[in-house]
Every structure is written in structure tokens, then in C-alpha cells.
Amino acid sequence: METAQTDKKPILDVDGLDVKFFLRDGTLNAVRDISFALYPGESLGVVGESGCGKSVTFLSVMRLIQVPPGKIQATTLRFDGTDLLKLTEKEMQQIRGNRISMVFQDPMTSLNPVLTIGKQMKEVIKLHLKLKEPELEDRCIELLTKVGISEPKMRLGSYPHQLSGGLRQRVMIAIALSCNPTILLADEPTTALDVTIQDQILRLIRSLAKDLGAATVLITHNFGAVAGTTDRIMVMYAGKIVESTSTPDLFKEPLHPYTRGLLKSIPRVDKEAQEKLFSIAGAPPDLMRELVKGCAFIARCPVGDDYCFHHLPPMVENRPGHFVSCWKVSHAA
Amino acid sequence: MESSSQEKIIDPVSVRVEEIITPPKRHHWIIDLFIQLVKTKPLGAFGGLLVLGMVLMAIFAPVIAPYDPNAMHGEKIVAPPSMTFFLGTDALARDMFSRIAYGARVSMTVGLGAVGLSTLLSTLIGIISGYYGGTFDTIVQRIVDAIMSFPWLVIMLTVMAILGPGQLNVILALAIAGFAGASRVVRSAVLAIKESDYVMAAKAIGCKNRTILIRHILPNVAAPIIVLATLGLGNTILAEASLSFLGFGVPPPAPSWGRMLSGDGINYMLKGPWLAIFPGLAISAGVFGFNMLGDALRDLLDPKLTGGMRLRR
Fold first, then answer.
1. DSSP states of A42-89 as a string?
2. Which of A169, A312, B3, B151 measures 20 to 30 Å from B307, CA to CA?
3. Is the distance from CB of B107 to CB of B240 less than 8 angstroms?
4. How many CB atoms lie within 10 A of CB A2?
5. What is the pLDDT of residues B216-252, one digit of tens each?
């Protein structure tokens, strides 16, 4: 699988991405010098706690961070051969929604309440595909049918408040897929939904993206969400990638102490109810303040020592395709 | 023939569903709006009726008015209402009914003109200033602060003193005095909406700033703008009356409700109460009508509010 990927050229190539926010109270370094690649058609899961920089990373890729106060720097930020940081705002607008599209976290607020579903869907299609009326409506109906909405013709005339959360997220997915994107970014697409709907939505995203051959990035803090629907997982902590490997590998043999802690802290049905839930002691570091020179996880790490405190662990390929950034693991292997 | 007989075999359940789902009738949305207004907002419909009455009175003043509004009728000074003079006459023996009918023209022109201009200015300034923010916003808002720190009467009198008398200048003065506060309200609404997820989503689908402003932000701040404009109409009619009272309004002999109330209305209040009552009633009816209509429209046009109209495409 890894060899298959290395044959292909990455559709999104990120090297040394660094995102800072210059705020009144100081500088917040939300994403710290991270590198990764996304291959055509693959499904990547990005997991981490709130505030670890997972959303900011992909908002930066779409250049949706407000600059200033934000600042995006990267050695390479290449999408399909074009350097995204060198594009003008106008050129960027032609990529957004067209080649890279995004599904947001809360379907209750990410649709404009005063415009009908039809108007909002047609907006994107008109903008990028330049379709005219009869085809425009046909395309919308086709998309709504694809995402499993019944009575699509009638739904086009509905306002967002007339739809349930699950239906609205389906509409958001239809909008995101309307111009056949190369990359679909889903930023916690199921966090605001019922558990029963979550599964449906995740499957829907994956199967539709597969049909289109689009690469998907699923940003979440829920391991359950990424387990069934991704090929590869990236674990982020305090603005850095700490571990990256194929999904089965990560669940079978997590290497980084943080990943292990996260996996251990998932509540399980088969355990005793009285048993206390495992938790990683402490809280993520304040990214506004100067971080330690070494590993950012050191304060909460069960195996870290003085060496980790002073030296930044590099990203090492521990096994073919399994990257991890931890002194303890790299040495052990 | 064969195909038609095949088509008849339809699952009865799906037919029933189709019947339930298909909306009974489709009108143009303005007709829909009108029906909803009458059905659910009787007070708003009454307000609309008053406004309609005023507009018709303004348009058809020459037809309605029995006399020339400025014609003096000899000895009939401060005559009480009678069959010849429906609403009596004023101190210069002019027919009050004719003057009120023609006064509707002045009030409507000044009111709609000033409010239109001020709404346009405040919306433009509020939306751009709120959306783009930064230094531009700061500079614009300090100017707005400066304008708001003057009492509105002082601004209006200053503008009138600079521009000189005339109906157009009255409109300008009222608009300048009114737009600053309104733009602040619009801006604050924009500040809340520009942070919303759907604006971010609009950016994420590749919308231009202009598209976002017009398609996503403007419709969402329409509710406060409608309220501001309708309240403003009432206030503007009153403000025009105040300006006239101070001698800066629409110059005589043009019949202005405000001047009728503040001139003869006050001077002959005891001798001829109709001189104060009828212009006063006309002003109140106008202000009340616009406020009620505006309130109802805001409720009906905002799909977020319950009871809001479900306008189909």
C-alpha cells in the first residue's frame, strides 16, 4: 500500500508549514513546522485534541486564515503542482469550492438561513462550472439524489431551518461535491450530529469521494470516526504531527505515547462499568507561550525524560510507512 | 394505447404522498406576501392601508382636493369644518382639506427621499465598514462618532443654514442627520454575521467579497434595516415638522403638515382646534402606518423568525 502511494505524485504536498497568529496578547503558533503529503484518491484522517492545530492546518491550505493577524509560511505548499502561497486571492477563489472543497463542522450554522437550499447550491455551480438554468437545476437535483435526499426538487425550495441536521449536512456535502473536487476537506463533519446519523454521513462522504476519485481529509477528534473510513491517519499534538501511519497499523500498534494514551482513553463497552476511564494527565501546552525546546508532549508523557525535554524529536520512519516523532520509540526500534 | 394502460398501474401510496407534498398553488411571492400580511398581521395590514392611503392622497391630490391649496377664500378665516370646507379653513382662509391632501405630497417626498437616502448611506457605510474592518473601519467609525455627538437638530439647522431653504435641501439635511446612527446599527449586525459559519463556507466555495456582501450579508441584515427605515420614516415626518416649526422646513406657501401644525395649529389652537387636530392626525396616521407595516414586514420577510413566511422560490 505504501509502495503504491510512493509511485504516485502527491496531490497536496506540504513541507514546513508554519502558521502563526499575531494577537494582542502575544503570538500564537498554531501549527509548527509540519510536513505531510496527500495522495490522489486516498482518505486521510487527522486526529487530535481541540486546539492542536488540525483545523488551522487545512484552513491554511485553503488560505482561509485571515491575514493579518494570521501568517502562513511554508517551504512547500503545493496543490497539483501549483504553489498555493504564490496565488493571488482571485486565483485562490477559483480553486476553493472547485478543486478543493470543504464540509464544515456545524450544519446548523454553515448554511445561510435566508437563502433557499437551491440558491446556495446553484451559487457554487454557477461560479465554477458556469452552467445555465435548466442544466443548473438538473445538476442540483442529481446531487441531492446522490447524497440521499428524497424529493430533491421540493427540497431545493426549502430554507435551511426546514431541514434536520443530518439533511443539512447532506446538503453541505452535495455543495462540496458539486464541482467534482480533487480534494474534499471535512472538518469534524459529524460532531454536531446524532450518533446514528454520524455513521451514515461518514460513509456517504467516503463513498461519494471514492466515486469521484477525490482525496478526502477527515479532521476529527473521534477515533471511531476515522477507524472505518480512512486509509491513513495523522495524529497531531500542539501544532505538530506526532505520528502518521496506515489506519490498521495505528490501531494495531500505536507507537507514540500520546497516540497510545488516546486509544486507551476510548471508553469500551466490554469493560466493567465501575472501572475508571483512562485519561492522559494534564492539558495540552499553551501555544501562546514559549514551548520547551524539546518534545511538546513531555509534560504529560509517561516515558519522557530529561533528554526529551531538551531535544526536539525528529519524524522518523520507524517501519515502512509508519512515521513517529518520539525519542523513546525511535531508539527502542 | 398500451403504454397509457401501463401508466395507470401506479402504487396508490405514492400518489397520496405526491398529493400531500405538492403545494396547492403557487403565486408570485409578492402576492404570497400580501396574503400572509392580511392573514397573519392584521395590524400590519392596517398600517399598510394607511400608507397606501397616504400614497394615493399624494398622487391624486389635485383630484381629491376641492380647491387650490393656496387659494384664499375671502372672509372665511378660521372657519370650522362645514360642507364647503370639510376640515375648515386656516388663518389665511385656505381650505384645510386641500392643504392636507397636498401636504401628503410634501411629507411623502421628504419622508421617502430622506429615509431612502439615509438608508442607502447607512447600509453602504455600515456593511463595508463592518465587513472589511481594520483601519478603514476605525476611521469611518470615528467620523460617525463625530456626527452622532451633535444633537440632530443642530446638524439639520447647520446643513440648512449652509444649503439654504428648499425641499431638496430639507431631504439632504434629514438624511445627513439620520444616517450616522443607523449605520452603526447596520455595522454591528454585520460584525456578528461576518463571523458566522456560512460566510466562512461561502469563502470556502470561492465566493468573491462582493458576492458575499450582497448575497450573504445584506439579506441577513435586512431585518434591522427595514425596521430602521420604517421607524426612520415616522421620525423624518416629525423632524420635517420640527424644521418647519423653526422656519427651516419646506418653504411656504407649500403645504407642509408640520408647518400647519406648528404655525396656525398652535396660534389658533383654542379658537380653531381643527387647525391642530387634522394635521396632527395626518402626521400620526402616517407615522403609525409606516411603523406597523415595517414591523409586520420584518416578521414576514425573515425566515428565521417563527411565523416568518415560508416563501417558496
1. -EEEEE--TTSSHHHHHHHHTT-S-TTTEEEE-SEEEETTEEGGGS-H
2. A169
3. yes
4. 15
5. 898 888 888 887 888 788 788 878 878 887 778 887 7
CA distance A117 to A123: 10
pLDDT in tens, A221-257: 888 888 888 889 999 988 888 888 888 888 888 888 8
CB contact residues (below 8 A), chain A span 105-164, against chain B:
105-106, 109-116, 118-119, 123-124, 127-128, 151, 154, 156-157, 159, 161-162
Give the mean model confidence (pLDDT) for residues B166-179.
88
**Which residues of chain A are within 8 Å of residue B196 when distances are taken between CB atoms?**
109
Average pLDDT over residues B13-22: 49
A304 vs B150, residue with greater confidence: B150
Contact B248, B163 (CB under 8 A): no
Q: For residue A315, how far is the Cα from the chain centroid?
A: 20
**A143 vs B contacts (CB less than 8 Å):** none
In this complex, the residue of A94, A111, A156 whose CB is nearest that of residue B198 is A111
Residue B212 in grid coordinates: 458575499
- Do A113 and B220 contact (CB within 8 A), yes or no? yes
**Pairwise CA distance, residues A152 & B129, whole Å:** 39
Tell me the C-alpha distance between B144 and B71, whole Å. Answer: 45
Query: How far is the CA of B3 from the CAs of A326, B8, B13, B15, B120, in angstroms?
Result: 72, 9, 21, 19, 60
Type of residue found at B139? I
Q: What are the residues facing B111 on neighbouring strands?
A: none
Tens digits of residue pLDDT in A120-160: 888 888 888 888 888 888 888 888 888 888 888 888 888 88
